[in-house]
């Protein structure tokens, strides 16, 4: 009789340990046991690609695991996003999202994935301050001057950006909507051509990333009126913000962040986020990020999820009001 009771007790304990001992979303102890791919939607050599490779190298060295960058270029990074969205949700295929991906996810209407729900945000890696600039000899001395001129002749003032539907374009449209100062958009193929047109006097204003503008600021050919957010930029703390000049709601920075396919085990998500945070805490990697114009963020999955949903909401509203599409 005692033997039967002992056997029943052992079976009961075994059942309980199986039921509650290992959560369904627990990380496999062997994860990762093969290379983790980071899919980038921009071409090799682009600043986003460079940032991804710096991070992948640091992660590989730190963890002893293999992190590999792959490029799938086109359609505002939505081709890369679609590839990852359809990948196995196991943590081995990640998408490197950007601010331009957030605008592309809003503007492309025929996507074969849902940008709101296809991914699990892992972490925002960094951010790149965006700015509003004029040529050094311009009579526009601050945002008050720019707004006054734009309101005096609606549509006459032209502003350049890095391309139709890009983050700089939508930042310019958000500026006009918040200030009721209508300007006409001129799209260029990247920050470099737009800045050259600014310097030559063909356009009076440019919306671009601060890092691309700073060499020209140092050469004395460009003057930055403001960074488009509530706090000053680390690489140029003397430049005022849009908020300081009376514009609320214009809080836009370019950024890099990692996503995994929806359904990826939370424990794997947490492991990746923790490794990225540890890598970004390394002074050498942080220095390299700063040299590329970035400010380290290393957010939690929930912080990044909240941030990304805000990005989508802002850009959807701007695009709807300005009737901007990509299809």
From TrEMBL:
InterPro entries: BUG, Bug_dom1. CDD domains: PBP2_Bug27. Residues 1-26 form the signal peptide. Keywords: Receptor, Signal. It comes from the Bacteria. SUPFAM superfamilies: Periplasmic binding protein-like II (SSF53850). Pfam families: TctC. PANTHER family: BLR1237 PROTEIN, TRICARBOXYLATE-BINDING PROTEIN. Belongs to the UPF0065 (bug) family. This is Tripartite-type tricarboxylate transporter, receptor component TctC. It comes from Pollutimonas bauzanensis. The lineage of its organism: Bacteria, Pseudomonadati, Pseudomonadota, Betaproteobacteria, Burkholderiales.
